[in-house]
Design brief:
The two termini are 14 Å apart. This protein is an all-alpha fold. The chain has four helices and no strands. It has one domain.
């Protein structure tokens, strides 16, 4: 899980809301326009979607185990 988070925030670890990849993922998942994602909307999204995000990270971890 940690590896995915590090890769997804590469170059934007201290300000992940500026990451084009994460903005695109938020837009495709929630419909929030990518250009309107800021710090407040990013943390609101993460907080509101935390069960789904944890499930996604667990799924990524399982795929990584299978691939090893």
């Amino acid at each position: 899980m940690l590896r995915f988070l590090l890769l997804a925030t590469r170059g934007y670890r201290l300000h992940p809301w500026d990451s084009p990849y994460l903005r695109w993922r938020i837009e495709t998942y929630s419909g929030i326009p990518a250009d309107s994602v800021n710090r407040k909307s990013f943390f609101r999204f993460v907080w509101n979607e935390r069960p789904s995000l944890w499930a996604y990270l667990r799924w990524v971890a399982r795929l990584k185990k299978i691939g090893d």
